[in-house]
Amino acid sequence: MTQQQKEWYKKWWGIVLAVLLLPFFIVWYAWNKSNWNVAIKLGATAFAVFLGLFILGTAVGTPPEHQKTEQAAQNTSAQTQEQPKQEVKLQAPQYTFDVPALVGKNIDQLRQVLGQPTDSSPEPTAEQMQYTSLWDNTFKKDGKELLATYDARTREVEDLFISTDDPSGQTQDKAQTTRTW
After folding, report:
1. d(CA 114, CA 141)
2. One domain for residues 33 and 85
3. CA angle 132, 136, 138 (to 5 degrees)
4. pLDDT confidence of residue 148
């Protein structure tokens, strides 16, 4: 072999092939091209066998993601088929406040429907009216609160707000509804 000609495993395509077939290349290189003693050659061979088994086990032992999803769906459907089907009766939700019936009413009409507010001062004082005409009343029913904001001069209700009973203060219903009074 001339000095200008490289060995196959030193050429670009040989390096790519060696990396792709790394466990086999390690064994071949350790025994045929190295000056290592026998103990190191045996260690390199054991490492190559372990690496090859690990790569093979990873490739064969783990199903692709779509197979995992299909298997989970099959398991779920098998569990569903085993359980007897129960008839579910849907009930109409029970509303604490009939908000559509309150829309368009002024604060005095709201008080007739909902009763007296629980606020310590349901009406603003003359001094408070100098700074704002908006005031609010809180009505309680069945552990829920409805807050009505109204203009104390015109008595028109500006908005209604129903509190949540979620301990975090957040509601589960994320739908936003906007109404024009």
Report:
1. 8
2. yes
3. 165
4. 93
Query: Tokens standing for 172?
Result: 């589960």
Check residue 36 and give its pLDDT.
82
pLDDT tier at 157 (50, 70, 90 boundaries)? very high
| pTM of the entire predicted model | 0.43
pLDDT digits (tens, 9 = 90+) for 108-145: 999 999 999 998 888 998 888 888 889 999 999 888 88
In a domain, 72, yes or no: yes
Show which of 71, 89, 107 is a domain's final residue: 89
Q: Domain limits at 152?
A: 99-162
| Alpha carbon distance 150, 138 (integer Å) | 11
Q: What angle do CA 92, 116, 93 make, to 5 degrees?
A: 5
Predicted local distance difference test score (pLDDT) of residue 98? 86
Same domain, 12 and 51: yes
